[in-house]
Amino acid sequence: LMAEKGGYKHFMLKEIHEQPRAVRDTIAGRLLESEGDVYLEGLNFNDCQLAAVKRIIIIACGTSWHAALVGKFYLEGHCRIPVEVDIASEFRYRNPVIDESTMVMVISQSGETADTLAALREAKARGAMNMAICNVVDSSIARESAGVIYTHAGPEIGVASTKAFVTQLTALYLFTIRMGRSIGTIDLAAGQSMIAALKHVPALLEEVLTLNSLTEKIARKYMNARDFLYLGRGKNFPIALEGALKLKEISYIHAEGYAAGEMKHGPIALIDEEVPVVMLVPRSSNFDKTLSNMEEVSARGGRVIALCTTGAEDIAGRVEDFIEIPSLCEDLDPLLLSVPLQLLAYHVAVLKGTDVDQPRNLAKSVTVE
Ligand code: G6P
Hints:
Layout: H1 11-17, H2 19-27, E1 31-32, E2 37-38, H3 47-51, E3 55-60, H4 62-79, E4 83-87, H5 88-91, E5 102-108, H6 114-125, E6 129-134, H7 140-144, E7 147-150, H8 163-183, H9 188-209, H10 212-222, E8 227-232, H11 236-251, E9 254-259, E10 276-281, H12 287-299, E11 303-309, E12 321-325, H13 333-352
Parallel strand pairs: 3-4, 3-5, 5-6, 6-7, 8-9, 8-10, 10-11, 11-12
Antiparallel strand pairs: 1-2
Helix pairs in contact: 2-8, 2-9, 4-8, 4-11, 8-9, 9-13, 10-13, 11-13
The chain binds 6-O-phosphono-alpha-D-glucopyranose.
């Protein structure tokens, strides 16, 4: 069994470490560098069909839903197409407004999640264009979608999704480039620079993985906390949600992800000396805003664990714990920031002695409603 896990103690840790390779596989053979475009073999929509898309609805469950929330930023930001994101079990029962100019995109690692499959069928029945981002080749969702982008993350065994998530973000970015190039909202130079940034991701993920021992030290310090808060803004709000989900799934500690600016509308009431607050504060357009939320937490005695990108060393002295990741760009920093959050959840769970790969009450693939 140890061999199956590639020498790692758990599948989850192995899969966290496979992320550089996984992202390499997601982009392999798909980058058309000189054209500033990408080739997505299973997409099956030509420029003319893509130009007809007036609205996108992205539908998923769990971790895949968090990827969808980041996808909204990519697509609206670069393609100026309105994007809605919905939870599959909500979408399928809410009598959604859909027509032939709506592209419904479902995201699923397994391709077998019952609610996501049902949502896809519902969208098709209502005449929507449809596509999937999927990991498992020839899964039900992949087979039933008009177009598919495979993530090529390889088999994911740990119930807590890690490499599937980061490759879903990569696939969303690839689709954004394709869409933007085909409708003209991304010009040649912009397409080329997006591709150049994407090519840096695998090596930077390798670099971020060297934070393993630091995150273990931090995990040891906070493992007995009863509640955790995760705060972020913009594209990093979904990353905060995902960080909190990872922790609750495998360590059984109550954790909540919140949009940093919403903190004052509720969660701030929870903050005292007992509550670790993981703050995502990469250098970005809303850096100062998030920083002021961080000060609000500190002022109430909250124990801040700050995740920053290089160039924010000044923050280190103002927080209890500080994790620095290399900075790439606002679009892709969320991929890098995901890794220390996975590692933090992993180490807390291991220290607490839970069944990391098979947490209680959870299933890898939820094929019943
Ligand atoms: C289950 C898994 C999660 C996963 C979710 C959606 O809850 O435990 O890790 O994110 O299903 O799965 P899917 O295969 O559709 O991405």
